[in-house]
Write a structure and sequence with these properties.
Elements: H1 6-33, H2 44-54, E1 61-64, E2 72-74, E3 79-82, H3 84-87, H4 92-109, H5 113-141, H6 145-182, H7 188-225
Parallel strand pairs: 1-3
Antiparallel strand pairs: 2-3
Length: 226
Amino acid sequence: MLFFDPLYFLILGPALLLSMWAQWKVKSAFTQYSRVSTFRRLRGAQVARQILDHYGLTDVTIERVSGFLSDHYDPIKRVLRLSPDVYDGISVVAVGVAAHETGHAIQHKMGYRPLALRTVLAPAASIGSQLSWWLLIGGFIISSIGLVYAGIALFSLAVLFTLITLPVEFDASRRAKEILNTMGLVNVTEAQGVEKVLNAAAMTYVAAAAVAVLQLLYFLIRANDR
């Protein structure tokens, strides 16, 4: 595990290939539809505001944050944070991403359980994903099965978080597509573009989950060998 382990690449290979394909799909879709403006020429922030107000979420604020695709909804502070390209953009990508993030705010209002569970798990998963590697590497170096299993337990929290993220993200995209059509914020052609963009983005979450699960499987196999 520490240097070159053929078993690692044998187990993770398919997931890593899926991840590369998903990244290519995202880049391709985003490049294509970031050049296509919507017929209403509304900025992403304006689209998000209209959707939030439509669902009675007037208390949710919208902020511009730095970074590429750093867009997210903060359920603790009830803030929708959009990257510059999405906040100020009038493209199909900007509108689709903005609508997707408002989907999370709607989930929060409606008490969508996977989102609530993900929010609760987030701190533990963050700590687990960082600390687990140190325990795993240290455990394998000094042949301490206790440290190895402690690392596996912590890594499992990160894996669980990744798996719970799947329904949360898929549901937010479903809501975004429906809302944009229902509110007349996109036309038929633009709706097709939004679907391609959000579907491509969703595949990155699938790939991440596959990588995480197979990494966990690899650690369990190597721990059992010890």
